[in-house]
Amino acid sequence: MADEFRIEGCHGTIAEQKDEAFYDDRSDASDDEEKGKIKFPARLYGREKELDSLKKLYAGLMASEVDDRDDKVLKSQVVFLSGYSGVGKSTLIKEFVKQLRGSKNRPNKTNNNNNDSPIFYGAGKYSEQNSASSPFFAIIEVLKTLANELSEGKDSSDTATEQREKVRESIRQSDLIGPEKEGDLILRATFPVLTPLLDSCVVADDKGANEDLTVHPTMSAIKECTLQLLCAICRALDNPLIIFLDDLQWADEASMDMLNVLLTSSELKNLMFTCAYRSNEVDVEHSFCKLMDNVAKGDESVEKMELFSLSPTSITSFIADSVKKEEDTEMKELSSAVYQTTMGNIFFTKQALEELVRKNILFYDMMCFEWRWVVTKVELANNMSADVVESVLGKIRYLPEEIQELLSLMAYIPNALDVSTLKALMCRDGVSYEERQVLDLLQQSSDEGMLLLVSPNWIFAHDRIRQASLKFASEKSGSEETLLHISSVLLAEGSDREWCQYVAVDILNSLPVEKTDCNELVKLNLKVSHLARNSGALGKENVLVHKGLERLKAAGMTWTKDYYELTRELYDALLVSEYSSGAYDAARVAIDEVVQNAKTPDEKLIAYTHCVMCLMSETSEYGRGAEEGLEILSKYGFDIPLSPTKTVMAKEEMKYKLALRNRSISFLTTLPIQDDSLLALCQQINICAMYSGKLDVMKLLNWKIIQYVLKKGSISSNLAPILGLCALMYVKLDDVKRSNEFATTAQALNPRIRDDKSNYVQSVMGVCYAMCLLQPFRSLTDPFLQSYKDFKLMGEVEMALNGLNGYAQCFFGAGCELGPIIESKLLVVEDYCRNLGRQSSLILFSMFRQFALNLRKHSDSPSKLVGEAFNEEQVLSELEGSAHFQTLRDSSSLRVQLAFVFWNEADMIDLLKILETYPLQDQFVARLHNRLAFTGLAAFAMCHRKDCASYKALGEKCMSRFKFLSKNGSVNARPVYLFLKSMKSPSRDAFSKAIEACAEGKFVNLEAMVNERYAAFLREENDEAASNDCITEAYFLYQDWGAHAKALQLSKDHSFLKKLRRKTTRSFAHTVGSNNNTATASVMSAGSDDPASKKR
Description:
It contains 47 helices and eleven strands. Residues 1-30, 66-73 and 1064-1096 have low confidence and may be disordered. The chain has a five-stranded parallel beta sheet with strand order 2-3-4-1-5, with helices on both faces. By secondary structure, the chain is mainly alpha-helical. Strand 6 (362-365) and strand 7 (370-373) form a beta hairpin. Helix 24 (564-580) runs antiparallel to helix 25 and helix 36 packs antiparallel against helix 37. Residues 151-174, 1071-1096 are annotated as: Disordered. This is AAA ATPase. InterPro entries: AAA_16, Hybrid_Histidine_Kinase, P-loop_NTPase. Residues 43-273 form the Orc1-like AAA ATPase domain.
């Protein structure tokens, strides 16, 4: 025998190795070991500590749900799990879920008994090929799993069925994502994988409810709807939901944006969110690292865990179990060699062992029925690849050609693939396959540990296997033809699967220019960019538009005759994308390109409009925006001077009236609606003119707009928000009649423009602000709250917060009932502001919440804004300039109301000194109303003091405002005006009229205060009985308002109140007249069993 076939140090000699099958043909063996394949044990090694930690976190989450008291429930438990590739992160979570599901010793959500309710689990994994991935890649996988499990699922037990019905009912009850609601449509459009779950929630009465409603999802809308979906699911489940996202170092921008909301939301409870990432691929500048920092800020429900490689002992145990041997000296020699190469990485360890088997270094001895190796430790190490990808690559090279082809094709695609798509991919170059043949190849690949079946799709078993397959594919000749084949198959398959189009365009963009059809590829980039925008993935949209332009430029086709329309469409998409992303300089470059090359004025309108919008958004240069906007409008026949004279104003007003021909402005609602980009430009210029105080310019512009639409015979959806702005303009000019006329016309147009969400909501907002002049505050709270929700969905943060500010001001001004509901709403908004870095808004809404808390809960200093939500002194000390000026105005406005309610004269005087320095004007009617009402009341309350006599003039200024509005029909102003009159000139008649007006307008807060002040007046007149009756009525009215701290103060000051209960529900306004008769309060003695005594 030749010496080269002799191995020194071995027990015996091995034969010449022609190939593996020659000397070890075990193809007919039924057992893996007899076939020469190593079989790895399924159990987890060396992770007992980490498993225990996860179980304790889950148990803590369950315990917090059991102990659900007030606000003491933990938020969702977040776990950040780090470790190198192949260290076993996903295996750990799978084992954790497996053990949880197998355990019956779990506390129930409502008691501590064992429960058999199912634990629902969803997992998703990001791909290294993130440029080819659709937005929310792994999140979609999670939602798909949950949708399938919650609509049907494998578990058909009674408890599982009950849980599914609870989830469906929870979704049905949602105002946002319930069947046929806007959120339902947004979720279906963005995540088609949710269709089974959302369809299961539909009942017969809901079908077709919103057939005509169309949606254009924004990222904000997608985030909010996804959040509310998870809230609805988690709220219904007995056991906390578990979500696992893997390889977040490769997550796309849209997913990061989504996770920032989900992981920080105070609304989302009963959920364990585990986020795994490769610690060696994430540095401090990585977007995921920044996300973790943001989520972990002061949050005790966030846990960080790091997985290290397994210890030599664990690796020895694993290998010993794999080869079914005792952990003796010989075994430790093998494990030591393997550990030296793999350093305890479990995936690498498996690949190394398989490599030793392939090279017949580790083999199953058919004679002895055991695994053996007959080489030294050094030779063991020399026969293992130093790199895991190279080890897997070596394995691929041993596989049959058909499996190599299958793996090569799958390597270019990040998504899981079904058999039919794989069949289409495999059929090429004249070779055809049946599905059963492809399925057989998939099964063989699975047997080799290369692929996994996640029914009905197939995926790579590990990222390193994909990397090795991709490397193998790139080494083959004809890779460009392969990529063209893959892209053509995906485009043919992708008519109803968006991810196919994302992958196809990414593949085609990677090919040389000469390999692709320029025209078709540019159109595909534009098409997929629209898909990305509709999914809220503005970053991906921007990349795709740039890719399309790069192709056109590389081909030298931009602005040429054949490509003119396509070029213009690309640049319009680019400038919109850059503006939406906040890249204003880049947007201006695209704007200049369109302005210089577009042929007609109409083709330049989108660019001109965004030119004005850039000035507003980037630097808030409203004056300059108005100036440049008017210059642009002059190109379209709108000649409007920046500083119009009275003569010009008079002439233009005459033209405007002639155009109307004695018709009301409401005539505009009869005109048909058509798209008009010029009115979109006029809308932006109106905003600039409004915020720069150029009201005469606004008047001129809107007179010309109305003349323009009357001449044209049609309007666009932009006209409604323009009319809303006009209404606000007349509010500023104190022209109540015209403000109401324009507001009601805009309101009448709104139902016709509902499909244009942006203009619809802007119009509603303008109408709400304007109608604060005349309409009851109480009737405007819901529209303001809805505008907040709508703008939030649209991503218009500033407008959303303005809407919520309007809601809060109207809520407090109307005297709506205080309590945990309003406080929880404000708390959610505080989270929203905090996540977006909106510090000024965060301060405002925290201030509102503290105001409500002071009225509702006892405090030693109720007229000071200091407590769990807000600390005025601390906040003001950290502010300066205009921020300090505005915050002091807002806090003083709330505090003067508290000082008046709790009758703290010292604080009223101090606050009047502050408030008298502020102008008695504000474009926000409700905010001005609340400030002037209590400034005036406090001023009249204090002006009787010698050192405060000057405040009488301040009170009269405030009162004149409410007198003017009352004469013009304001239902909000009249009770305040009469209250002010009673404080200025107290009398029985004055107080009685004020009480009656408050009761009629349902201002329970003011009615309570007037009664209390009337009681003080009657006491000074020595009418103790009537005074007590007034105090009694005030006491119950304060309770109705929810101002329990004030009611408690009254009960301490007037001991007789503790012995009384309410007898009837009638207001004291109907019992106290203007004569001298003693009024009788509706009370009865304590201990009465009259059921009516407990309600007003």
